[in-house]
Amino acid sequence: MTTTIANDPALQVLIDRVHSARAAGAQLCIRGGGTKEFYGEIPQGEVLDTRVLEGTSSYEPTELVVTTRCGTLLAELEATLAKEGQYLPFEPPHFGDPEVDARTRGATVGGMIAAGLSGPSRAAVGSVRDHVLGATLLNGKGEVMTFGGQVMKNVAGYDVSRLLAGSMGTLGVILEVSMKVLPMAPATLTLRMEMDEKRAIAQLNAWGGQPLPLNASAWWDGNLILRLRGALAAVQAARTLIGGQVVEPQFASPFWTGIRDHTDEFFTSAHAAVAGGAALWRLSVPSTAPPLGLSGELLIEWGGAQRWLCTAMPAGAVRDATARAGGHATLFASRDKTPGAFAPLQSPLDRIHRELKKAFDPAGIFNPGRLYPDL
Amino acid sequence: MNAPIPAAAIAANERAGRRAEVVAALSDALPAHALLWQREDTVPYECDGLTAYRQQPLVVALPETETQVAAVLRECHRLNVPVVARGAGTGLSGGALPHALGVTLSLAKFNRILKIDVAARTATVQCGVRNLAISEAAAPHGLYYAPDPSSQIACTIGGNVAENSGGVHCLKYGLTLHNVMRVRGFTVSGEAVEFGSEALDCAGLDLMSILVGSEGMLAVTTEVTVKLVPKPIVARCIMASFSDVRHAGDAVAAVIAAGIIPAGLEMMDKPMTAAVEDFVHAGYDLDAVAILLCESDGTPDEVAEEIGRMEAVLKASGATRMSVSENEAQRLKFWSGRKNAFPATGRLSPDYMCMDSTIPRKRLADILLAIQEMEKKYGLRCANVFHAGDGNLHPLIMFDANDADQLHRCELFGADILETSVHMGGTVSGEHGVGIEKLSAMCVQFAPEEREQMMAIKRAFDPKELLNPGKVIPSLARCAEYGKMHVRRGLLPFADIPRF
Description:
By secondary structure, chain A is an alpha+beta fold. Chain A has helices at 9-24, 74-83, 109-115, 122-125, 128-131, 160-163, 197-208, 232-242, 249-261, 265-275, 315-324, 349-360, and strands at 28-31, 46-49, 56-60, 65-69, 86-87, 132-138, 144-148, 173-180, 182-183, 187-194, 214-220, 223-230, 245-247, 279-284, 297-301, 306-311, 328-334.
């Protein structure tokens, strides 16, 4: 099946909105399901609902490529892929009310790309960015442009489509995106063992250097949970080598979903603490960084490279400690956003960011201040 | 039709005056031996792996330290002199072709491996370190650097970053972009800049996405941190023969449809097989119309299981003969022909032009048959190697560059392959880059506003447009001219005049 967005009447609606915003000097807040509204700086501008442009434009399982419009529900895309035994390997999160079923919470494909967040398997399989093959973008001049394509290898011109992953909608409206998908692995197994933080970090990195099908990891409160995924023979061999207790699939599957969607016990408590004035930080550090010694509740993912910290510590202290470890700290959820959601940029990167913003959106229409207050 | 402005076309006195000015400015920045401008010294830099186009650089600078790189850039920026960064010069699209009024910045002396971090599985190296040297340094730790372009014994990591180089294992292990964590370098004005980090992401926009593959147009790379991956315990390869191109193409889709992601999946056509067999004597089936190399890696049990599944799929797809490598020596022998496809072709013909486009996998047979028709149309031979798993083609068009008409027909043949690839839903460059070779083809793939958006990105990094100017993004005028020529369907008027 192949359909093109050029014939979709919703496309013209979006283009017209950009032109009229430009004429009126107005600003637009690009919004899909709104499940990540809490993320980044505070949304500003008139809402531009991307859900008007929805549906899968083309999907051919033997090409391992799916092309989907921005407003398509992430859950719907995942269901389409699952019918063919395929999936999005980077496990994008479905945020929103945990009381509501994940399939109806409403995260969209456009929001998945714009936020650029990946789930538990990211260290093993790559990020959202790594799976983008092409994208069609509506820029600030109201021009519809396609970059990349529907093929695995493509170096014709700058790779603008991947730049959109994590751009928080500041460069334009992501209208359609082509992604690389993969067949589901034949075997998955979850193991649990007790281990302190320091040893868990060292052990995860040691395993990472061996040819093991280690797909995801989570350490919290003295417990290390591992997910193996791959060929049956490889998973069985790794299980013997790694040891630990097997977590039965009926418990393992919801556990990983809870980590992915931030609905498990750690994140539920963190959200409660945030409501009470604490902050939830996402610390992105080299996987080998030793324990940072910051006070608060800690959950470690990605083989040590992503550490969630729920704390009342001052932002400066968290950011400094993370930077010293070679990483950056994102103020993921907090009532007080004054420290800035994302770690500040140094020169010349800050200047390049401002110039790039102008190159895509010269009138500053899209998601003003959502990534950085002056961008 | 993609040829550069000949240096002769620029007034000799203008060039000499400019050269004196640039040499004087750079003399303070570099030791005397690191600055070349006499013709006999600059000749080795007149082209890269795309030898059909040559240009004398104004000056060649060979800095040895980052301080010198910064100083060269600062001076060139002040004098508005174009800068073309260069690694090993193995690129196949003319990305490192010199600028007649510019400085070629050779980074060959940045050849040190700075750190292999075994625990973090990363290597930090200077930009001039060869691709294969990284894997060799990591090998004692059971690790390697995954992207393996055919030129890996010679090409540098800095050049790989510039081109987003691929190789034969991309479907499973990704491109350069997927394996680079951090790039240190300098902006056009000589400011130090760092993209990415040793963490898995960094704050702000993902600038690494556009830096990798930007062909030296956004910044100059001096240091790179790459990801290392554990070496699989074992790898085995199936060599399968097909008597029909369509069966071979369908077999590629069937392998993927079976839920298998091969470590490598390559195709060679009959002329290519004959050429490489003569060169490496690997025991290829010379009667086959197409040969597939299909590789599995992992634990011994895992590989045995996957090889069994692959064999069943290939057999069902019509493979006429199959052999499976029984040991590492045999596996390397299977690959030796594929890895030597270019030199083997070099023995058949005085010159060859290596094309590089990507199409959806399902169109493999269609494009191969179309290329066979083009051989008749342009009166030139073509041998084909495909990264079939990625749908990435490398037709090698054979010609004699001393015959102007053959070069001209070769260019038309190449352009026809690229345009056919775009029409089949593909792209004009899979892994070799656009450089100068595919400027006209970019007019076919991208609309004016898309090309202008790319130019705007370049200006965000390089407002004076001094870094490798004239590459990758064709001007509006050039595309208008190409469009006019296009109407004539391959019959170029005034083929001897330079076109920019």
